[in-house]
Design brief:
Length: about 210
């Protein structure tokens, strides 16, 4: 029972979370609209060949399959173009004056987000509680996939408001334990140089070799 005059912090958090989610949704929609007009098609062809080599998947299988959204996500957020930048970087720089301050802040967070592996702790409906395989950090996600069958999955996520949000497809994987141990060690080796985020952005795509979608 609320005492009259006492701030309702739960209501405040819900309101702020709703605002943050709306800003994220608008930002992602704007980015994808921008990409549909400004992405270099030759660059995309090059990216698709690189992607197919990394995940050991023929390029012709990507188009029109479940892999298409996975490739598009990697292409827009992680792929480094011939000129040495990423599509999301170009978007945020060229459209900076058109974005709201809250969207600019979210954009800065998105720039550091890479594909990371998680192990599922529990699931209920469309909610998943999972732990990062490298540092044991626990997160809760909402996913549209209610038939979660794998113990591990990969996603790109950010902190939006008070909650963690997936901004990539949910990708189930079945990785060898040796790969998980190797990943954990590789990140630990880069901790002293503060290169973890860069490593994840560049090499997170390797987990897709173990995807089944």
């Amino acid at each position: 029972m609320m005492i009259e005059g006492t701030p309702d912090f739960d209501a405040y958090r819900r309101r702020k979370q709703a605002q943050a989610d709306q800003e994220l949704g608008e930002l992602m929609a704007t980015f994808h609209d921008w990409a549909s007009y400004h992405v270099n098609l030759r660059e995309k062809v090059r990216a698709k060949h690189i992607f197919s080599e990394i995940v050991s998947l023929p390029t012709e299988i990507i188009d029109g399959s479940s892999w298409e959204k996975v490739f598009e996500d990697w292409f827009l957020f992680d792929y480094v173009t011939i000129i040495g930048t990423r599509n999301v970087d170009m978007f945020l720089k060229k459209e900076a004056t058109k974005l709201k301050p809250a969207q600019t802040q979210l954009g800065a967070i998105i720039l550091t987000a890479g594909l990371e592996p998680y192990r599922i702790l529990k699931k209920k409906g469309n909610m998943i509680e999972a732990v990062k395989t490298d540092n044991g950090q626990t997160k809760q996600f909402k996913t549209v996939d209610r038939s979660v069958a794998s113990e591990y999955f990969v996603c790109r996520s950010i902190k939006c408001g008070y909650k963690d949000r997936m901004i990539s497809p949910y990708i189930p994987i079945n990785p060898p334990q040796e790969e998980i141990k190797k990943w954990r060690q590789e990140l630990a080796d880069r901790e002293k140089d503060n290169q973890q985020f860069r490593f994840i952005k560049e090499y997170g795509v390797r987990w897709l070799r173990f995807a089944y979608i």
